[in-house]
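Render beta-aspartyl-peptidase in 3D.
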Amino acid sequence: MGWAIALHGGAGVPLTLPPERRLPREAGLRHCLEVGIAALKAHKHPLDVVELVVRELENHPDFNAGRGSVLTTEGTIEMEASIMDGKTKKCGAVSGLSTLVNPISVARAVMEKTPHVYLAFDGAEAFAREQGFETVEQSYFVTPENIERLKQAKEANRVQVDYTQPDHTSHVDSRMGTVGCVAVDNEGNLASATSTGGLVNKMLGRIGDSPIIGAGTYANHLCAVSATGQGEAILRATAARDVAALMEFKGLSLKEAAAYVLEQLPPGTTGLVAVSSTGEIAMPFNTPGMFRAAASQDGYSEIAIWGSPLI
Ligand code: ASP
């Protein structure tokens, strides 16, 4: 048994990406994987590892979380995040954050510093400020790329993106994805974290799968799972919990459980990353691609977007 880590930068990947849009994301994935590996090698608890890695992904402007969060139909920001510890099943979640630099850390504070699991909107913002988390003006998130994404989504009268269709017209990525990380240490401690800006052009107040324990994020003593894709489909499927339940009640391996859950979801909607307590890794997706990276103690390491590994 050894440590393992897997992370994603979203399943909203078009069929092709020009180098100027692909390379910064590959570099971001590589950097975040290195951060996670170093933390695991330094014997940090997986909860600290997934928070650390997701913070890095949130700070990267090319992923849809934190800095790169996409805009609501009103041009505003409503970020959401959740985190879960496998052994204790303690978890925390936030929705409707509009000024926080790192929503994942607020989710962790909800878990550790309140009697609750989930805070949203004004209450979540007030709690985060009271805890002293870093805030910024909304202009930090409202980048020219994000304004263009919203404009394109409005022109196409689109909220949920059809990931299966080629995107030849767009010169910015209108389809980006959530970020997430799962990790296990060599004592079998597991944790999962997911963070997102949601969907471009979403209604005000819309909550997706990412902050919902059991849908976008789940961890228990057997596995840790983080999902990405069309939140409404993932919510209906309780995707992350189903992976754990198939292992728990049916004795499936992580790979079998993750593949089964993906098969039940509508094509073109979902991807997930998962690790098991024994260091197994699964990263299935039914979209054209998923920004992803993974490594384990035995020397395996992979960074990939479409079907085949890049390294
Ligand atoms: N799952 C996210 C949501 O629906 C979006 C994504 O993963 O791309 O909010």
